[in-house]
Amino acid sequence: MNFQIRDAITTNVHGQSAAEFKDIVEDAISRGEEHLLPGLGVFFEKWWQQSSPDEQDAFVQKLEKVFAH
C-alpha cells in the first residue's frame, strides 16, 4: 500500500468520533466493495501499532479461529 493512500485516509478521518469510525467500518463491510479495503487496512495498521502485544495476540488468535472454518 502506498503512503499517499495512508496519508489521505488518515487526513480524511482525523478527529472522527468512535461512533463515526464504527459507521465507516460497518458501511465499508456492508458494501463489500474491494476499493474500500485499503481504508480498512489503514485502520487496522493504526490499531496494530497502538495495541499491546496481548491485544495483538488475542486478535490473531481470533483470526485463526475465524479462518479455520
From TrEMBL:
Main location: other
Pfam families reported for this sequence: SSPI (PF14098)
Compartment annotation: Spore core
A biological process term (GO) from this entry: asexual sporulation
InterPro entries, A to Z: SspI
Expression induction: Expressed only in the forespore compartment of sporulating cells.
Keyword list, A-Z: Sporulation
HAMAP family, sorted: SspI (MF_00669)
Protein family (similarity comment): Belongs to the SspI family.
Name of the featured protein: Small, acid-soluble spore protein I
